[in-house]
Design a protein that fits this description.
The protein is of the alpha/beta class. It has 19 helices and 21 strands. The strands form four sheets. The chain has a six-stranded mixed beta sheet with strand order 1-2-4-3-5-6, with helices on one face. The protein has a five-stranded mixed beta sheet with strand order 7-9-8-10-11, with helices on both faces. A five-stranded mixed beta sheet has the order 12-14-13-15-16, with helices on one face.
Length: 528
């Protein structure tokens, strides 16, 4: 290579090094710039007319929509999946109602800050925001189907009660529905009116009116503030006088409306079951009849006649054994051929009562039956299978109602009992484990592993509300009962039995302390 070529190469190389080190040099100028992260977008996106909210766009949604109903959901939640089509339908129904009102949703597990801020403890949870107020949302209390959601929201947008001025308006209002409620208040600025309107906002299945007109007080025979329920069945009207000293009590009025909006006698079916159990009347009297038989239908007159004195204390229910009510018959251990007959149940204690089978069903006998139960003269009827001849011959002992007390509360034995239902999937899944447990402890004289079919046997000591339920009855005179609520595997069951009916505390792994001379208390706290 020629000398001048070598010198030229050397000069060009040195210049390249110099430029590479200079700020703003050619090489640095050509390098792509790193994208800098800007503030998160507050853009509002929609799915099926429902806003998709995050912590970044909630404030914007509250600014742009005066009324906002927000569903907090979890993608894996079965109840959320069931609500989804109804929620979307409600959004569609409201689409043309008001631009101020919008439905929205928040993915709870993905937006933990919002879940924490609004105190969401379960899914789905619906909260209603008004006038952009982020700090005080109202819990949604309406029905979780499209029309019910819409009715609840419309009540919130107001007015929740129709203002009635004339006798003609009141008469037309009363005639418009099977049930209407009118609040008669002499002063519409009174606090009691606000309480009344608050109830009207929540009870969306009923129609509410309001008046302060003296001529309407006179028309309907009222001299003081009163809430009146008008209905086109039973007694036609029920009055709730407002206490002049204490004022209107919301819980009392709500209960009054629930009780008096129901028929004295309600037929049980898929449409009425929710209302029956939502009435918060604990005592139910059931008349089982075959509606296809004239002789059975005749009994409805006596049943109806006996009902009025027990309104609010006992709910009178008719069950048609010819209908789709096999599950009700099964629950009471009955067959369709047992009709006509009566059963009385307290839905809180699940205690059931059976009348004298020789007694004819009349209004008088029904009244006496109810009165005797309410006064404690009649003992609960406890179903029991017969004691099997070989009940104690296998590792798992078979208990029924008739031998339960003797075995479970034997002072010399520790008894571990599985209360099950034959149709229960969870019971079937743990059946083999229970057999293995009994086999393991079959030679322990002081330990008994047993099971009881709770669909065919009832106990006076306690009610079983879920399956399987596991209870441990330790030896001794105290009749102590311990409910087992831990893992359902052989190892955990064994630890529980070996430790006298108490699960030992799990061993805590040792955590090394920070080295001497360090000041890393925060790191150690996080590690713990």
């Amino acid at each position: 290579m020629r000398l001048d070529s070598i010198l030229l190469f050397f000069l060009l190389t040195v210049r390249a090094w110099a430029l590479d080190g200079e700020e703003g040099g050619e090489k640095e100028a050509k390098a792509p710039e790193e994208a800098t992260a800007g503030p998160p977008s507050d853009e509002l996106l929609e799915e099926d007319d429902i806003l998709v909210l995050t912590q970044h766009n909630l404030d914007r949604a509250l600014r742009e929509h005066r009324y906002l109903l927000v569903e907090f959901y979890a993608p894996w939640c079965g109840h959320c999946k069931a609500l989804a089509p109804e929620y979307a339908k409600a959004a569609s129904l409201l689409k043309n109602e008001s631009s101020e009102l919008k439905l929205a949703k928040v993915d709870g597990p993905a937006e933990k800050e919002l879940v924490e801020e609004f105190g969401v403890t379960g899914y789905p949870s619906l909260k209603f925001f008004r006038d952009g107020n982020r700090s005080q949302p109202v819990e949604f209390t309406g029905p979780r189907e499209a029309e019910g959601i819409v009715r609840w929201l419309k009540r919130r947008l107001g007015p929740s009660a129709t203002h009635l001025e004339t006798e003609a308006e009141a008469a037309q209002f009363i005639d418009s529905q099977d049930i209407v409620i009118i609040g008669f208040f002499k002063d519409l600025q009174d606090e009691d009116v606000a309480e009344f309107l608050a109830i009207a906002e929540d009870v969306v299945d009923l129609t509410f009116g309001l008046t302060d007109r003296p001529e309407l007080f006179q028309k309907y025979g009222l001299s003081k503030d009163t809430v009146v329920l008008f209905k086109k069945f039973d007694e036609g009207r029920a009055d709730f006088p407002v206490d002049e000293e204490l004022g209107l009590d919301q819980p009392d009025l709500t209960r009054f409306l629930v009780i008096h909006s129901m028929h004295l006698v309600t037929e049980f079916n898929s449409q009425t079951s929710a209302k029956i159990f939502g009435a918060r009347i604990l005592n139910h009297l059931l008349l089982f009849i075959n509606q296809t038989l004239n002789s059975h239908r005749e009994l409805l007159k006596d049943f109806q006649e006996a009902a009025p004195p027990f309104r609010g204390e006992v709910l009178f229910v008719v069950v048609d054994v010819a209908g789709e009510n096999d599950h009700v018959l099964q629950y009471f251990g009955m067959n369709a051929t047992d009709a006509p007959t009566l059963r009385f149940i307290n839905v809180e204690t699940t205690k059931k009562y059976v009348p004298n089978t020789e007694e004819e069903i009349t209004a008088a006998s029904i009244t006496t039956f109810c009165q005797d139960i309410l006064s404690g003269k009649v003992k609960p009827h406890l179903r029991s299978q017969e004691i099997p001849a070989d009940w104690d011959q296998k590792p798992v002992k078979v208990l029924v109602g008739k031998n339960f007390e003797q075995v479970a509360f034997d002072e010399t034995k520790n008894v571990f009992v599985k209360f099950y239902a034959p149709w229960c999937t969870h019971c079937k899944e743990m059946a083999q484990t229970w057999e293995d447990l009994a086999e393991k402890y079959k030679d322990h004289e002081d330990i008994i592993i047993a099971e009881l079919d709770s669909t065919a046997n009832e106990l006076e000591a306690f009610a079983i509300r879920g399956f399987p339920t596991l209870k441990y009855f330790p030896a001794g005179p105290d009749r102590k009962v311990i409910e087992y609520k831990s893992a359902r595997d052989l190892e955990t069951f064994s630890k529980f039995l070996d430790n006298g009916g108490v699960l030992p505390e799990p061993e805590q792994p040792e955590v090394p302390l920070p080295e001497a001379g360090t000041n890393d208390s925060k790191a150690h706290k996080d590690e713990l």
